[in-house]
Design brief:
It is a single chain. By secondary structure, this protein is an all-alpha fold. It is about 70% helix and about 0% strand. The radius of gyration is 17 Å and the shape is globular. About 10% of the residues have low confidence.
Length: about 190
């Protein structure tokens, strides 16, 4: 039996071409990646062509291909996974919008983010653009929004990934949410 290895060791082994490590890594992280993907997909249109399972597989493959990222720990790995899934869905929304051109923005209160379902590609894209602008001002707040709004993680899970207290997450989530609401109002 192979000794227990952490995710960062498994990723390093996968990058060296160890197929057994790739299978072990995927088996270990699949359930959590699937939960993140399912949360993302609940926010998408009813007729979305991408399924949560496909989102997990695509994100996992993209992460393994990325040679310049070294994951500090399990939390960092899942934070990156959430970001990769967001990028995939935004790219998918852009492609879908390119095919349908037009549409109206759906107004959604950011404080209700964990409970909402977004069915409009334009809104996802506009939130993503605003989040990119926020990242230039405050990268940590942008990461908090990404983890809370897009991945649907709890305050505690977000605090664990970022490495701060839950109280800090609550405070910065409030500030970031207010900034984003003003930014979205100015661009719609």
């Amino acid at each position: 039996m192979m000794p227990h290895r952490d995710i960062t060791e498994l990723i390093a082994d996968v990058r060296r071409g160890d197929d057994a490590a790739a299978e072990d890594l995927f088996r270990r992280v699949y359930r959590e990646l699937r939960q993140i993907a399912a949360h993302y997909m609940r926010r998408e249109r009813q007729d979305h062509t991408l399924q949560a399972t496909a989102l997990v597989h695509e994100a996992y493959l993209r992460m393994l291909k990325e040679r310049d990222v070294s994951y500090e720990n399990r939390s960092h790995f899942f934070g990156v996974a959430a970001h990769v899934m967001r990028r995939i869905l935004v790219d998918h929304a852009r492609a879908h919008r390119a095919g349908k051109r037009g549409g109206r923005y759906m107004k959604v209160a950011l404080e209700d983010a964990p409970a909402i379902a977004v069915e409009n590609c334009d809104y996802i894209i506009e939130v993503d653009r605003a989040l990119e602008r926020l990242a230039t001002l405050d990268a940590r707040q942008a990461q908090i929004v990404e983890l809370r709004f897009f991945a649907g993680l709890s305050v505690e899970q977000t605090a664990d990934i970022i490495g701060v207290t839950p109280r800090t997450i609550v405070r910065e989530w409030r500030v970031a949410r207010g900034w984003l609401q003003r930014e979205l109002a100015a661009h719609t």
